């Protein structure tokens, strides 16, 4: 018992242990080049990415709203967004066939986001979130910084921070040139970032 610190017997800070959040804030500010210095208050730590997706789906949206997501995508997101937030996916279909405007299979473009958004709006679906998984799971593509900027600009056209928001993944696996500016909520998890699923740890 002598080696246990007294605060381990108390409930921890529900936003995450402060010293850990301080380190994450420093990391995101320096390594990921946040446009403004991040502080521990800006960071929330949770039990894995799925827990963050479930929480964000309830706080960013209303039941029945849609979220844009390039497909194919990791299937676990749908169940969390639906079960907790009552949200429906609005797929941005990516194809293995390369057309004249594309340079590689399953290429994502801002035009494809726009087309999917318009299709959803015609069906009366209010789209409020753009979910970008980077590197893409299951494709493994790392989106170039220019494309991420275009995607974020797309998201910002709609009443920034109210109507459509972006969630992006994984800055750690990008090279310096690939790193996008941190302009939207960012979700990072140990299962994707460092292939350490047992830690069940993610932060937003
Ligand atoms: C895109 C994506 N979201 C969520 C998860 C699940 O993350 P966690 O185990 O942290 O809940 C994974 C796991 O590979 C993933 O690839």
TrEMBL record:
Keywords recorded for this protein, A-Z: Pyridoxal phosphate
Keyword Transmembrane attached: no
The keyword DNA repair is assigned to this record: no
Domain Aminotransferase class I/classII large: 7-157
Classification via Gene3D superfamilies: Type I PLP-dependent aspartate aminotransferase-like (Major domain)
Gene Ontology molecular function: pyridoxal phosphate binding
Protein name as annotated: 1-aminocyclopropane-1-carboxylate synthase homolog (inactive) like
């Amino acid at each position: 018992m002598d080696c246990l610190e007294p605060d381990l017997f108390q409930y921890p800070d529900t936003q995450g242990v402060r010293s850990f959040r301080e380190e994450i804030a420093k990391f995101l500010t320096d390594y990921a080049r946040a446009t403004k210095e991040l502080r521990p208050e800006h960071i929330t730590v949770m039990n894995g990415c799925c827990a963050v997706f479930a929480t964000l789906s309830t706080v960013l949206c209303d039941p029945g709203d849609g979220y844009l997501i390039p497909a194919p995508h990791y299937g676990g997101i749908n169940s969390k967004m639906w079960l907790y937030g009552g949200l429906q996916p609005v797929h941005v279909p990516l194809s293995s066939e390369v057309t004249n405007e594309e340079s590689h299979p399953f290429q994502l473009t801002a035009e494809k986001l726009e087309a999917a958004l318009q299709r959803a709006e015609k069906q009366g679906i209010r789209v409020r979130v753009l979910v970008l998984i980077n590197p893409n799971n299951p494709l493994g593509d790392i989106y170039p910084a220019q494309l991420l900027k275009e995607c974020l600009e797309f998201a910002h056209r709609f009443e920034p921070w109210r109507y459509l928001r972006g969630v992006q993944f994984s800055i750690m696996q990008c090279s310096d040139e690939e790193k996008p500016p941190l302009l939207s909520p960012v979700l990072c998890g140990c299962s994707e970032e460092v292939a350490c699923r047992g830690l069940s740890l993610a932060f937003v």
